[in-house]
Amino acid sequence: MCGATRARPPEPNGVTPMTDPTTRSPNRLAPVALILAILVPIAGAVLGYITLRQIAQTGESGRGLALAATIIGWVGTVAWFAFWGVFLAAIGAMAI
Questions:
Q1: Cβ–Cβ under 8 Å, residues 52 and 37
Q2: Which helix (DSSP H) or strand (DSSP E) does residue 39 occupy?
Q3: Rounded mean pLDDT, 12-17
Q4: Are 20 and 51 in contact (CB under 8 A)?
Q5: Long-range contact pairs involving 20-24 (C-beta distance under 8 Å, separation at least 24)
Q6: Is 71 within 8 Å of 46 (Cβ atoms)?
Q7: Phi, psi angles (nearest 5°) of residue 26
Q8: Coil, strand or helix: which one is 8?
Q9: How do residues 56-83 score in pLDDT, each as one tens digit?
Q10: Taken in order 37, 42, 45, 51, is the CA torsion positive or negative?
Q11: Using CA atoms, how far apart are residues 71 and 73, in angstroms rounded to an integer?
């Protein structure tokens, strides 16, 4: 049997890994938070934080998406405030 692959034997309880009932279900707010973090950063950051708390309590999957949404949201919020601060300061400097 050189080079031949063998099929994986069935699990003892008859459950295959694809139908394992112990797999974690995904949190539905995680992708929403990520999309919102890109479009409206502060809302995405807050929803990402809420989603992280839900995932910690329920054990659902999607922690990476929620964490990315939180980070992107806060970075976007800081960038938004920095942009408007510099923009308004420049307009104020031009008026003098």
A1: no
A2: helix 29-39
A3: 59
A4: no
A5: 24/59, 24/60, 24/61
A6: no
A7: -75, 145
A8: coil
A9: 999 999 999 999 999 999 999 999 999 9
A10: negative
A11: 5
Task: Return the structure tokens found at 22.
Answer: 């112990």
pTM score, two decimals?
0.72
In this prediction, residue 31 has a pLDDT band, given cuts at 50, 70 and 90, of: very high
Q: Are 62 and 30 in contact (CB under 8 A)?
A: yes
Inter-CA distances, 45 with 28, 36, 68, Å? 16, 8, 9
Q: Identify whether the C-beta of residue 78 lies closer than 8 Å to the C-beta of residue 63.
A: no
C-beta of residue 54 within 8 angstroms of C-beta of residue 29: yes
Q: Which residues contact 46 (CB under 8 A, 6 or more apart)?
A: 73
Contact present, 41 and 74 (Cβ < 8 Å): yes
Place of tokens 């049997």: 1
pLDDT band for position 28 (50/70/90)? very high
